[in-house]
Design brief:
single chain; mainly beta; Immunoglobulin-like; 2 domains; globular
Length: about 220
């Protein structure tokens, strides 16, 4: 009986750790230009590399006014390339996508970057969050911004959504156990919704949501 039980338990453990039995979705690994970056000159192409081969559903470039920029897209394995028909203009630009993973799961998202010299930001702008945690941006204008959350966390992800976009822009966050910061580009005026998932020491997870209006 004990041997039979041990065999069942061992089989369960193998099932849990066997990669073939797990369902993994494609994630964005890197991009060029980098998400949230400021670049001196307009890139000729925008390249997005995923964690696995994907099937292209849709891809677009958007200007700082959220207008679609004429472009062409192609995918090769895990790499999506978007080429604008004309040079991108200075200011905020967005590349957004919708792709399908090998397991059939469809994911959408976006990156944003700034071309040229990014203007200085001000004033410090507070976000209304739930639960209520002191959260602020270092400005209230579009462009590159720094988010600060008074949370006892050490890492996390910040997702930003906007009505003009098909998927979220994701920022990577880091912290010192007293506050968390993240830097990125918010390209459009209007209301942005924030969803922060933060991880502290011991694996404690904090989720907070909020909104901010940019001009």
């Amino acid at each position: 009986m004990r041997k039979a039980l041990a065999a069942v338990v061992l089989g369960s453990l193998v099932l849990l750790v066997n990669p073939a039995s797990a369902s993994a979705h494609a994630d964005l690994k890197l991009s060029a230009p980098a998400n949230g970056s400021v670049v001196a000159a307009a890139p000729k192409v925008v390249t997005l590399t995923f964690s696995e081969s994907v099937e292209l559903q849709d891809a677009q470039l958007l200007s700082s006014t959220s207008q679609e920029i004429p472009s062409s897209s192609k995918i090769s394995g895990a790499t999506l390339t978007i080429t604008p028909n004309k040079p991108l203009t200075p200011g905020s630009n967005v590349a957004q996508w919708k792709v399908k993973s090998d397991d059939g799961h469809v994911i959408s998202g976006a990156i944003a970057f700034f071309i040229g010299k990014a203007p200085k930001q001000s004033p410090v702008t507070s976000l209304k969050t739930m639960p209520n945690i002191a959260t602020s941006l270092n400005g209230n204008h579009t462009g590159q911004l720094t988010l600060t959350i008074a949370a006892k966390s050490t890492s996390g992800e910040i997702e930003w959504t906007h009505p003009a976009m098909n998927g979220p822009i994701t920022w990577r966050a880091s912290g010192n156990g007293k506050k968390v910061t993240a830097i990125g580009v918010l390209p459009f005026t209007g209301t942005w919704k924030m969803n922060a998932t933060l991880v502290g020491k011991g694996g404690n997870v904090l989720v907070t949501t909020g909104t901010v209006n940019l001009v």
